[in-house]
Amino acid sequence: MSERDPLAIIADALAREQQDQVKRDSCYTALGDSFTAGTGCEPGKSWADLLAARLRARSPRLTYRNFAIDGATSTAVLDQVGPALQLEPDLVSVICGANDVLRSRRPDVEGYGDRLRSIFARLRDAVPKVTVMTATSPTQWSFLGLGPRTSRRVEGAIREINEATRTIAAENGVLCLEVAGHPGLENPENFSSDGLHPSTVGHARAAHAFAELLEPRLGDALGREVEL
C-alpha cells in the first residue's frame, strides 16, 4: 500500500487551518484597574466575569482574559494592550483614569488623554473590527470618607478625566458607559466595606449596565438567559 502524497497531507492541513480561522471563537479581553479586576467582590464575580458569562452562554467556547490589576493607572493599562492583542479579541473593555487622579496630587489629564488615544489606536490598528468600550469614573465616593479639601481636588480632576474619556471615545467610535452621576453611586449596597470598590451586588449591576450598552452592537450574543 503506497504512502499518502505529502503534498496532499499539507493541503489538507492548510484547509483545516482555514476552516478553524473561519470558525474562530469570539474573544473578550478586559483591561483596566481594580474596578475591572474585581477588587471588593467574590472571586469570579467581577462585572467583567459576569459579562463574559453572558457572552459564553451564546458562544460556549468564548475566550476570556482579564488583564486588569489593582491600582493600575492609564500607563499600566497601556502596557496591558500588547498581551491582549495576542489573543486577537473581538471585544475589549478599557477602563482607567481614576488612579491617575487618586495616586497623584497633580494629575496629568493631558497625558491621560494621550495614553487613552494610544490604547484605542493600537487596538483599532491591530484588530480593525474590534468592539471597544470604556466608562467614565465616579466624581465622588460618598462612603469613602475623604476630607473636604481632598474631595474638591479629586472631584475636579475626575471631571476633567471624564470629559477627556467622553471626547476621545466619541472620536474613536468607542462605546462609553456613563458611570459619573449614576444614582446607584448613592446606594451603600453597591459598595464594599472600603467605600471605594463595588460590592458583589455593585458588580452585578455594572455587568447589566455594560450588557445593555453592548446590546445594540452585539444583539443576542449577550445571552440574556444568564441570570445575574
Could you please describe the fold and organization of this structure?
The structure is a single chain. The protein is α/β, with parallel strands linked by helices and 228 residues long. The chain contains eight helices and five strands; from the N terminus they run H-E-H-H-E-H-E-H-H-E-H-E-H. Strand 4 (131-135), helix 7 and strand 5 form a beta-alpha-beta unit.
Count of individual beta strands:
5
Shape: globular
Do you know the CATH topology?
Answer: Rossmann fold
Total of helices: 8
Distance between the ends = 60 Å
H/E series: HEHHEHEHHEHEH
Which descriptors apply to this entry?
228 residues, alpha/beta, disordered C terminus, globular, Rossmann fold, 5 strands, 49% helix
Write a compact overview of the structure shown.
With 228 residues, the protein is an alpha/beta fold. The chain contains eight helices and five strands, in the order αβααβαβααβαβα. The chain has one domain: SGNH hydrolase (Rossmann fold, 3-Layer(aba) Sandwich).
